[in-house]
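agent> Task received from the user: take the single chain below, predict its 3D structure, and emit structure tokens. No templates, no multimer pairing.
agent> Plan: (1) validate residues, (2) run structure prediction, (3) serialize to tokens, (4) report one or two observations.
agent> Step 1 OK, no nonstandard residues flagged.
tool_call: predict_structure(input=
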Amino acid sequence: MKDIAIYGAGGFGRETACLLREINEVAPTWNFIGFFDDGLPAGTRNHQGETLGGIDALNALDRDLAIVFAIAAPKTVEELFGRISNSRIEFPNIVAPTARVLDPATLKLGRGNVISHHSSISCDVELGDFNLFNTQIYVGHDARVGSFNMFNPGVRISGNVSVGDRNFFGVGSVVLQGVSVGDDATLGANSVLFRPARNGSTYFGNPAKKFDF
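)
tool_result: status=success, residues=213
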């Protein structure tokens, strides 16, 4: 089995550790060695494992290691990825045993994605890098998703939707057929997006409306 660590020891990180264990129950794949987290002292423990250090400890590591990000903050994940200089680190895709890909032959998948339990990916879908799909996410046919996006539980991305980079989708939010989402946008919990979302904007409601703060 290959050594793997999780970057982010919070709630999503602990959930991801549980996901790795469930993957191993189906097919032994990963040897989970612990967490990296810049906000916790090395040696801090939770029920799933120990914090090994932060970015400096990871860059100093003299061994091959897989890293999976589990931080629900798109810009933070992108920044951390940019700071990793250790050439022995790789970024696998982590897919739950209960996730369903309707047509694997037509799925274009980058690296570093996490697809959690009971999520469903339709046909002719493109996913970039480091997208985090929490539980029960649906991605419709012909959807195009960029990189570093956070999809919280129950998000629905309809067919022919285009999603850029570093977007945050709140719990139960919906993007309707053919609607585009730019970069750095936020869609609030249970909001339904009928019209394109502009870069850096925040939307709430059904129908979702742009809010300025």
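agent> Step 4: summary for the user.
The longest helix spans residues 11-26.
agent> Done.
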